[in-house]
Design goal:
Layout lengths: L16 E5 L3 H13 L4 E5 L2 H10 L4 E5 L6 H12 L9 E5 L4 H10 L3 E4 L4 H14 L3 E3 L4 E3 L15 H12 L19
Parallel strand pairs: 1-2, 1-3, 3-4, 4-5
Antiparallel strand pairs: 6-7
Helix pairs in contact: 2-3, 3-4
Length: 197
């Protein structure tokens, strides 16, 4: 999703309660500037996981922007805690995870802790706005299992793998071929009469 900076569309987070978790003053300052620039007025600024847990336990949160907190990864742990321990509606809160490092292991960790999307630092305000809008609109179902609580991790639509057809089309083709009088001739299946005693 790409927004045109010259677009006349306006988005406003004025009524949204936004939880921000970043343990660096610079990172928090940048997040605050971005979300207040998007109209947010109700901000919960947290510099530690403990502060964020207290806020999430007491207040209703509309969106959370969480730093991964490398190298400890405590931000990922907070998201996992929020998904498993917060009451409704906070356990369903859209979560955007930010990080300066995006090796495949961190991307997988962000996905597996229950985050909606990961955004690499540094990012422009329009990038954050695009991600907020995407998270608000995408509507993936939530899954609850022993090892995972969060949005469905399968959201890429790449279509069927090369050389494999679609299941519905394959079923229709197989049914047409097996039908009596089809182009392929008579069915090889013999129907046995049912014996009764």
């Amino acid at each position: 999703m790409a927004l045109d900076p010259a677009s006349r569309s306006r988005y406003n987070l004025e009524d949204a309660a936004v939880l921000l978790l970043d343990d660096t003053p610079m990172g928090m300052s940048i997040l605050v500037q971005i979300v207040t620039g998007l109209g947010a007025k109700k901000l919960f600024r947290c510099s530690s996981v403990e502060m964020a847990q207290q806020v999430a336990a007491k207040h209703e949160i509309d969106i959370a922007i969480i730093d991964g907190m490398a190298p400890s990864g405590m931000g990922y742990d907070f998201v996992k805690w929020m998904r498993a321990n917060c009451q409704e509606p906070n356990c369903y809160t859209p979560v955007i995870i930010t990080t300066a490092h995006t090796p495949a292991s961190d991307v997988a960790r962000a996905r597996d802790c229950g985050g909606h999307i990961i955004v690499k630092k540094p990012f422009a305000p329009i990038v954050m706005l695009e991600r907020i809008i995407w998270v608000a609109r995408e509507g993936r179902p939530f899954l609850f299992s022993e090892g995972y609580v969060g949005p469905d991790r399968r959201f890429r639509d790449d279509g069927p793998p090369d050389g494999v057809g679609r299941r519905r089309e394959d079923l229709e083709k197989a049914t047409a071929e097996a039908a009596p009088g089809s182009a392929s001739g008579e069915s090889d299946i013999e129907i046995q009469p049912r014996l009764t005693s």
